[in-house]
Amino acid sequence: MSIRGLKKKQPKTFKVKIITVDAEMEFSCEMKWKGKDLFDLVCRALGLRETWFFGLQYTIKGMCTWLKMDKKVLDQEIPKEDPISFNFLAKFYPEKVEEELLQEITQHLFFLQVKKQILDEEIYCSPEATVLLASYAVQAKYGDYDPNFHEPGFLAHDELLPKRVLRQYQLTAEMWEEKITAWYAEHRGIARDEAEMNYLKIAQDLEMYGVNYFPIAQNKNHTDLLLGVDAKGIHIYSINNRFSPNKSFEWSAIRNISYSEKELTIKPLDKKAEVFKFFSSQLKVNKLILQLCIGNHDLFMRRRKVDSIEIQQMKAQAREEKARKKMENQRLAREKQLREEAERAKEELERRLFQLEDEARQANEALLRSQEAAELLAEKAQIAEEEAKLLAQNAAEAEQERQRLEITALKTKEEKRLMEQKMREAELIAVKLVKESDRRAKEAEHLKQDLHEAREAERKAKQKLLDITRLNYPHMVKYPQYSPTDTREANFDKGSIKLDLKDIDLKRLSFEIEKERLDYLEKSRKFEDRLKELKSEIHALKLEEKQSGLY
């Protein structure tokens, strides 16, 4: 067979691009493929078995539409592009995520889609709940919180909160991160699939979770309403309130749903109840609503029936997988705990080793310092020994000096005593001399007075003698010769001799008085000189005593 023949037998294909919430894939499809063929290919590529929740969505003329499984892909009204883009999304939502989502991939795809709807504000969530949900999303992405690894700012590039919440509260990114991290730190030990499941369990209680909204009119007057289709039934909302429905139809209470052109009719199971009719803007909208209603109703009825063999097997596998993962997580947790303990023990050993090395270094430095100190102390000891010898010598000299000073002090005391005795004697002598001087002065004064009286008596005697002489011997002057026989002359001579003797005695007495006065003055001068010498000696002794006291 030729190569040209092989080429002719190869089927014609077209390219499609499948966009999941977190990835993109491209496939080559045969021209004859139906929607189910492409859908099964994508599910096999993803390893997805719970296919009934999902579908392939595309946008045409501004309206989101789901690819029909029973029609050829190219026969449907799809975008004319190469490759043709489809979004692989959850089309139907479970009532209870924990019971119905069996595979981890199913759970992960639902988590990513619901998270995106909350961030895009397609599902309303309170600010407090968004922070808690963000903490579970962080746990699913980063694992357990580690303050050493997850430093401030590690969430700066993650979109975790709706812009509405960020605008509502005037908080910085650091403050939001701090709030999220506070919750995130409490999720320690939770695995990724558990964190995603906790996220979905919180999200499924939100009013807008899993609801597809369509604008409708209750009558031809075009009263604006919203029709919501979810896993529990059909709900009618006012245009400005998507939280609390004005009217609800549970799937168990609906008998039939049909449409005719733009009109869609809901017939309750109770035949007496009023039939609800509404009008949509396009026929395509009614078709889409009916498609969603049929799918949700089928799932609703399926949940209330006995599980098929496939579902039972999947649940058993899911339980085994959860048990295995639980054991694996426990084992990993134990290993992680052991590893952390080993790391802590290693850090403790390293710290201890560092501490011991530091202590060894300090001990070595202390040893070196001790050796240096020992050498220094040896030098100091030698110096101290020499100083001790010198001090002993000085002490001996000081002892000798002390003994000498004691002897000197004794001598000084004796000399002082003798000097004090001499001073007392000198004072007594001075007193005596003063008394003697006073007495001699008084005697000199009496002698002077006696001398004066004697001289006055002498003068008077001479005058009297002259007077007598003149009266008895007037011519004696002219005749100086004396007669030997004249007794008066002899008597006169005797009187003259007596007078001369008396005069001589007076002179002698005056001389003696003057001599004694001079002797007294000389003795007084010598005594004063002696007193000065004594004062000098006493002053010198006092200086020696002061110096002895200093020693």
Question: How would you describe the overall organization of this protein?
Answer:
This is Merlin. It is a peripheral membrane protein. With 551 residues, the protein is of the alpha+beta class. Helices cover 61% and strands 13% of the residues. The chain has helices at residues 3-9, 35-46, 97-100, 104-119, 127-142, 163-168, 173-184, 192-203, 283-303, 309-472, 487-550; strands at residues 13-19, 24-30, 54-60, 63-66, 84-90, 212-217, 224-229, 233-238, 247-250, 254-260, 263-268, 276-280. The strands form two sheets. The chain has a seven-stranded antiparallel sheet with strand order 9-8-7-6-12-11-10, with helices on one face. The protein has a five-stranded mixed sheet with strand order 2-1-5-3-4, with helices on both faces. Helix 5 (127-142) packs across helix 7. The radius of gyration is 74 Å and the shape is rod-shaped.
Annotation keywords:
single chain, 551 residues, alpha+beta, Ubiquitin-like (UB roll), Acyl-CoA Binding Protein, PH-domain like, 7-stranded antiparallel sheet, 5-stranded mixed sheet, 11 helices, 61% helix, rod-shaped
What structural class should be given to the helix and strand makeup?
alpha+beta
Quote the beta fraction: 5-15%
Output the strand order for the largest sheet: 9-8-7-6-12-11-10
Architecture of the domain at 104-204, CATH level 2?
Answer: Up-down Bundle
- Topology, number of strands: 12
Radius of gyration: 74 Å
List segments where confidence is low: pLDDT < 50 over at least 5 consecutive residues. 475-499
- Helical fraction equals 55-70%
CATH class of the domain at 104-204: Mainly Alpha
Number of helices: 11
Mean pLDDT: 82
The CATH topology of the domain at 104-204 is Acyl-CoA Binding Protein
* Dominant shape: rod-shaped
Q: Please summarize the sheet with the most strands.
A: 7 strands, antiparallel
CA(first)-CA(last) distance: 139 Å
Q: How are helices and strands ordered from N to C?
A: HEEHEEEHHHHHHEEEEEEEHHH
GO molecular function, one term: actin binding
Subcellular location: Cell membrane
Binding site for a 1,2-diacyl-sn-glycero-3-phospho-(1D-myo-inositol): 68-71, 287
GO cellular component, one term: plasma membrane
